[in-house]
Amino acid sequence: MDPIKPAKVVKEALDKAVEKVADLVTPPVPGVPGSEPPRLDPPTEPRGPLPRKPDQASPQTRSATGAETGAGHEVREQRGEFLTTSAGLRLHDTDHSLKAGERGPTLLQDHHLREKITHFDHERIPERVVHARGAGVHGVFVGYGNAEQVCRAAFLKQGETTPVFVRFSTVVGSRGSADTVRDTRGFATKFYTSEGNFDLVGNNIPVFFIQDGIKFPDIIHAAKPHPDREIPQAQSAHDTFWDFVSQHTEATHHVLWHMSDRGVPRSYRTMEGFGVHTFRLVNAEGKTSLAKFHWKPKLGVHSLLWEEAQLIAGVDPDFHRRDLFDAIESGAFPQWELGIQVFPDTPEQTFEGIDLLDPTKIVPEELAPVQPIGMLTLNRNTTNYFAETEQVAFHVGHLVPGIDVTDDPLLHARLFSYIDTQLSRLGGPNFNQIPVNRPHAPVNDMLRDGFHQHAVHSGVAPYKPNSLDGGCPFTAGADMSAYVEVAAPVAAAVKQRKSPASFADHFSQPRMFYRSLSPLEREHVVRAFTFELGKCYEQAIKERQLRVLANVDAELCARVAEGLGLPAPEPTVPVEEVTTSPALSQVGRVWPPDGRMIGIVVDADDPDSLDGLHTLRQTITAANMVPLVIAARGGALEEGLVAQRTFLTARSVEFDAILLAAAPPPAPDALPSRDAKAGAPAATVDPRVVLMVQEAYRHAKVIGAWGSARTALVEAGCTPGEPGVVVGENPADVFARVSELLAAHRVWERFPVSVG
């Protein structure tokens, strides 16, 4: 078929959608917990609940059947000035239970105690078995209109603005695990379209560990903590994971992505997203195509270094969700283009020899370019995590006219599993009536009763056919936006538990992926395998995985084997040459540095270090970045200038670049007994500042300094003028150069790699 012609961004429609939040009052530093600062003395005068923060919103106030109510978001929020029971009864005391005398037993008649404790005992619902730890936000999607020749879905029409809710997540860890663990990330998007909800439930890796959904419990049981000790949490660096994937070689492609930098993203804002499966698209004339969905971040694809990810897991386990929420609150709204790879819908369902029904395979972008079809902008944080992020229910079976499933065996298992999971987690079949899940299209489903039924159904005939309700609801035709499955032929076949022969190649695509990476990225893959396998106890598992790597790439196998102190085995299958895909590499391009965190080290006792700081902060903010001033102590440094971090509370990993306005001497608390980061007292510069610069340096981050701050560079062992170490006479010149370097994310040339 003819390729889709790329369209320009529908700027007018997107601007209109973003206008709704354009007047937000953005605080200088995001993350303030309340919408008003508290007073020193406890409040005593009754008043109503405070308003939401300007960056927050909740789901649209739709009825349980999808109708617009016309009410504002506040109708779901707490009301009134006084404490009440859940039935609205005002209470005069909530600190003391009702007793028989001051020291007597508590009375069973205390209805307030019983309600308060009973509700508390039932506050939690089962966490997700996978993707338990997540962060959700609201946004809008604007279609470009150029997909209409292959897909009739209304939300893809030119200028069509569709509200969305997006949930990012890790896969293996529990709700209390850390954000920066090595793991696959979920990227699930709920489109509230005019034709019903469409859920694009994908990951930040385009392939999966398994080809058939029947094996999903196996891979998850293997990746989860060991059942005897419930450790390690949120990690793949343990024996059961590698025991499984070393024998289950169809996982090899995903494992390579998992061990690459994609396993430790810098931010949710700098992740790609993939629908993983191949879907069938249908246009208005009924013509079908096969397609894969891609999310391309406008900020580029960037990752953490492994040491950095480990440090962050301890320093700030909420790093990714904080980064997302703070960027939105700051007005640096994350954006992704939705794109599709389109293939002819042939009986074989293959493209250039690649089986499109195999979820462990990709189609290189050089063979089938990703064609942009719309823009996603995330612009509102949630008002309540539980009500929205924890209760949002995604389902790959939430489809709209123009999008159908294929015979991918993993996709078919997901079609069953997702709805089955919601029944357990959300207490019954009416989970789509929870506000965050309610469609924006009319609902007349004839489904009745059940737990948590919010609709009040009228009529007496919830069945078809009926005459007592006048025949309503009626079925619709395809010309009335009805969903009609594609009449795809089903081949006559014998029932059997087998996979097609085309699923049997487990090594050529992992080889393509590895050889498409830059030398630097390949170095990181080697380190990741060496680290992960080095954490395993069983020697046989290490040796078995080396056999797998030998079938992927001899150099990769040899270097990992060397790190493990083991001999490199010979391959057991022919290792053929592959055509590389440069699109798989993350490095070598430049991207907008929006939302980056810039740490500025000052000396509060040196007025010269504060010169030009107001202007510098304004310049950084105007560049869509967030400046944080770091000093020996918190509080006001001078009028209008506050230190948001101290040498005690700051750590290099929360910053994308460090600017040194001074070389501050050791502060009074620069003692190991007060702050372990202080180490041995430094001669001239506070040791916490030296450590911060050293960490930023070895993590290939940009460092800038001016004036006397050069002393801090020297004490940290950094040579002014080497790659990414910028010096100058004034803040403006230094930051201009730092900003240019940030576009490449890191200064990779600081540490040359000689891998072939």
From TrEMBL:
The keyword Repressor does not apply. SMART domains: Catalase. One of its GO terms (biological process) is response to oxidative stress. Its cofactor is heme. It catalyses: 2 H2O2 = O2 + 2 H2O. Heme binds at residues 128, 167, 216, 414, 418, 425. Residues 21-76 are annotated as: Disordered. Belongs to the catalase family. HPII subfamily. Decomposes hydrogen peroxide into water and oxygen; serves to protect cells from the toxic effects of hydrogen peroxide. This is Catalase. It comes from Saccharothrix syringae (Nocardiopsis syringae).
